[in-house]
Q: What sequence folds into this?
């Protein structure tokens, strides 16, 4: 599976709620500071990643081209 867009987390805005890491653990994980980060950009379909973007309370998950 290869997505056409690259997802990233704007860590400064992350609330550490862990929602994204719980929903899509193959894409997101929590770092040593308990902030979310992307560890595998192709770990889920773009539609699933978009769902995580839409439900992120910090509005801090973005596509790189946006
Ligand atoms: S859903 Fe958003 S606020 Fe919550 S951990 Fe993930 S990136 Fe951070």
A:
């Amino acid at each position: 599976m290869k997505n056409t867009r690259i997802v990233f987390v704007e860590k400064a805005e992350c609330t550490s709620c862990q929602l994204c890491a719980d929903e899509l653990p193959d894409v997101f994980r929590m770092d040593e500071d308990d902030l979310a980060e992307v560890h595998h950009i192709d770990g889920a379909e773009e539609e699933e990643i978009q769902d995580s973007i839409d439900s992120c309370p910090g509005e801090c998950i973005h596509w790189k081209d946006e």
In short: Residues 9, 14-20, 36, 56-58, 60-61 surround iron/sulfur cluster (CB under 6 Å). The domain at 7-63 is CATH 3.30.70.20 (Alpha-Beta Plaits). Helices lie at 19-23, 46-55. The radius of gyration is 11 Å.
